[in-house]
Amino acid sequence: MDRPVVFFILGGTGDLARRKLYPAIQSMLRKGKLKNLSKIFALGRKREKLEETLAKADPVFKRIFEFVEFDLTDRKSYKRLSEAVSTLSGKELIFYLALPPQLFEQAVVNLGALLRDFTNPRKLVIEKPFGLDLSSAKKLNFLLEKYFSEEEIYRIDHFLGKVPVQNIFALRFSNYIFEGVWNKNFIDHIQISALEEEGVEGRVGYYDSVGALRDMVQNHLLQILSFIAMEPPSVVETESIRDEKVKVLKSLRKLSPEEVSRQVVKAQYEGYSQEVGRVSNTETFVALKLYIDNFRWQDVPFYLRTGKRLKEKKTLAVVVFKKVPGNFRSFLGCAPPQNMLTVEIAPGNRLKLSINMISPQKLEACPLEGSMELDLVRELGEIPSAYETLIEDIISGDRTLFVRGDEVEAAWEIVQPILDSWEETKDIETYKEGTYGPESAFELIERNGRRWVN
Ligand code: BG6
Q1: Residue 127 C-alpha to ligand 1 middle, in angstroms?
Q2: b or e along 325-359 (b: 16 or more beta carbons within 10 Å of the residue's beta carbon)?
Q3: In the annotation, is 158 catalytic?
Q4: pLDDT of 1 above 60
Q5: Of 107 and 327, more confident
Q6: pTM for this structure?
Q7: Whose CA is nearest to atom 4 of ligand 1?
Q8: Is 180 helix (H, G, I), strand (E, B) or coil?
Q9: What atom of ligand 1 comes closest to residue 220's alpha carbon?
């Protein structure tokens, strides 16, 4: 659509805006995209924070960029905003909440009230974390729906903007060869890992009140899980796709307190409390095992893990197929490795299928593991950053890669029993920086004869 669009970035001087949004917008402008973006208002308190961004910015970006002094708690700020909006008749207004989560409610209510005086088409973009638990997420949804229609709301999960994640959908539903094996009869288990080398540099305040379960599992990892486990949608269209993802989340088995203690590992890297400056029991690592109670996935474990200050940055989804049946397990005494289909989301953008082979000897020779790889960058050329894809979709009005209200709540339904159970036990295991996490994370998967794939 060619209607002129104006961005209002609340938190416009903050870390997210400076590190992700402005570079993404600039990259798109350089590629000649965003032709209908007529203005970006960066709303924030301190202009100085933008100095570096502006010093490095392209002239095209600078031309449409304007800082507006804005304090969320100050009435005069809203008056100024209202005046700015009154000069924009006929333009589409996009309000992007790049704010700390504790400010979301206030921003939604105040913006909602302000916009009642205007008839401009509008969109509201909201970053994660969407609520801090099930009840706060419900409250936030309630407020959003009071002032905006679901069609106007874009809940961001930036993992959905990543091309390898989108390719899980394409892999499954545009390659019929996988459908026959994509179930409990052929798949032994699934692993989803988001390992990070970095700690919580510069974000201690946010991170310490949230922890790894809310920061990564409730959103990013469950979104990847939904793409892997969903049924084919009846049509390839936004709401049908979201419906199928919601069904997966609703079929995830909720954990009892006993299951939480057996199936969920929480841990913290050794130097964390020192970094925070007080004794904290916030987890910087989580590993868990989930089950989906439906026909396709009954009894297939889904292992999820994420953590900070680990050995390497790696984001992977791995589908591990079953072992070959009994009689064939022993080729000259060695069992063929299980086939694996890996979606590498970081550091590379790759799909990989492991295939066993034998060297030119005898049929009974010990099979060797080989692999077939599809490098998405090599195949597709340059891959846009997650935020480029998402900003483009926001402007064009495609909500497929955004999270629906009921979907967010369904994800919290899974996480809430874990949070409740953790309320009872404050103990936390520690792990050494630069490793693959605590001993219990290995125990969680190895007790069933499996192993983490890195
Ligand atoms: C964010 C989390 O949503 O995702 C961060 O808040 C995390 O803690 C980041 O580091 C990881 O994203 P990416 O794209 O760098 O893998």
Answers
A1: 12
A2: eeeeeebeeeebebbbbbbbbeebbbbbbbeeeee
A3: no
A4: no
A5: 107
A6: 0.96
A7: 216
A8: helix
A9: 3
| 341, 188 contact by CB (below 8 A) | no
Q: Does domain 160-396+404-446 have CATH number 3.30.360.10?
A: yes
For ligand 1, mutation pick of 162, 220, 283, 306 (most atoms within 8 Å of CB):
220
Q: What is the pLDDT of residues 220-279, one digit of tens each?
A: 999 999 999 999 999 999 999 999 999 999 999 999 999 999 999 999 999 999 999 999
Going from N- to C-terminal start, the domains of the chain cover 5-127, 160-396+404-446
* Atom of ligand 1 at shortest range from CA of 345: 16
CATH number of 5-127: 3.40.50.720
Nearest atom within ligand 1 for CA of residue 207: 8
CA distances from 315 to 196, 282, 301, 306 (A): 8, 22, 19, 9
How does pLDDT run across 112-156, given as a tens digit for each residue? 999 999 999 999 999 999 999 999 999 999 999 999 999 999 999
Active site residue: 220, 308, 399, 404, which one?
220
Token pair belonging to 294? 């439906």
